[in-house]
Amino acid sequence: MKSSKGLVIGVAIVLATVAAIFGFQWKAVGQSARIQTAQAANNESSAPASAVGVERLSAAAKPAVETASATGLFASAASRNADLQDSLTWAFGGKSQRGWRLYAPLVGGLIGADSAQTSGDFAAQLSRWQQQHGASANGILDSGTWSQMVSDWQANRLKDHSRPTADEVVTIPTTECYDPSRPEALRQVERRTYAAYKQMIAAATAEGAVADGDAYLKVVSALRTPEYQAQLRAQSPNSGRAGLAVNSPHFTGRALDLYVGGEPVSTKDENRAIQTQTKAYRWLVKNAGRFGFRPYFYEPWHWEYVGK
Ligand SMILES: [Zn+2]
């Protein structure tokens, strides 16, 4: 009798201990889940990240999904990108901007993705880029990632703003100008920039991006002196940022405006939508770097020679 009473007490102690341990663990899990939820609510960009995280966890837990491609894992990121490409609001040049669809070719070049910006493959490739840049690798092109991309492009532009001396300048033949009646004074270009441009056009022609007699990739504008720029401003004060620029990269003779379709130099979204679809522009995005040219992301026609 005495020993069975002791056994009952012993079992009760064990059960209480087990209950205490499990109860504590359950409570701890509950707390950590609540903390994650609170963090997600406080940080707009981490909410989609946790959704991707959940997909990753469930994929790991089910052997049947182990072979799932990156495309499947990044399906929800891809659908966020499909929305954000037209809805992300940001500001540039004192103007409110909407979406990043116009820049999709440049983004593809930057992250090394050839697939559509709404695909899982694109999201997977973007997550690698985000990881390399110390950002949350969620595969979503949100405002944080977008700011970083714009900073990268801007940082890679021409830094040397010195003006060319007279012997560093050559004249572009009218046959290479978008407007063949362009006066000689407006066909000047820095010598090495012109040599690189000629090599680039030869490659574009050989690779089928432009055909002989095409207007594509012809020079719309090259060296513009501060005096000429001032004259432009006086003539059309509403000609937009390029026209109004008081410190234009065109002063260096190493910035080229090339014809990539549509209206040659209009920043209207509808116009840039046409330009960024052309074969010539897409070829530049992929190949201009080989010849030492860097893009100005906001103006599809404007390329700067920084050398190789
Ligand atoms: Zn320009």
Describe the structure.
The protein is of the alpha+beta class and 308 residues long. The chain has 2 domains: 70-155, no CATH class; 166-305, Muramoyl-pentapeptide Carboxypeptidase, domain 2. Helix content is 50%, strand content 10%. It contains 12 helices and 8 strands. It has helices at residues 2-42, 46-61, 70-73, 75-87, 104-111, 120-132, 143-155, 191-206, 226-235, 240-244, 269-275, 279-287, and strands at residues 89-92, 95-98, 169-171, 188-190, 219-221, 255-258, 293-296, 299-305. A 4-stranded antiparallel sheet has the order 5-6-8-7, with no helix packed on it. A two-stranded antiparallel sheet has the order 1-2. The protein has a two-stranded antiparallel ribbon with strand order 3-4. Strand 1 (89-92) and strand 2 (95-98) form a beta hairpin. Helix 4 (75-87) crosses helix 6 (120-132). The protein is globular. The N and C termini lie far apart (94 Å). The model is unreliable at 13-68 (pLDDT under 50). Zinc ion is lined by residues 242, 250, 255, 257, 302.
Identify the bound ligands. zinc ion
What would CATH call the architecture of the largest domain? 2-Layer Sandwich
Question: In total, how many beta strands?
Answer: 8
What would the principal axes of the Cα set say about the shape? globular
How far apart the termini lie comes to: 94 Å
Q: How are the elements arranged and paired?
A:
Layout: H1 2-42, H2 46-61, H3 70-73, H4 75-87, E1 89-92, E2 95-98, H5 104-111, H6 120-132, H7 143-155, E3 169-171, E4 188-190, H8 191-206, E5 219-221, H9 226-235, H10 240-244, E6 255-258, H11 269-275, H12 279-287, E7 293-296, E8 299-305
Antiparallel strand pairs: 1-2, 3-4, 5-6, 6-8, 7-8
Helix pairs in contact: 4-6
The structure holds zinc ion.
Zinc ion binds next to β6.
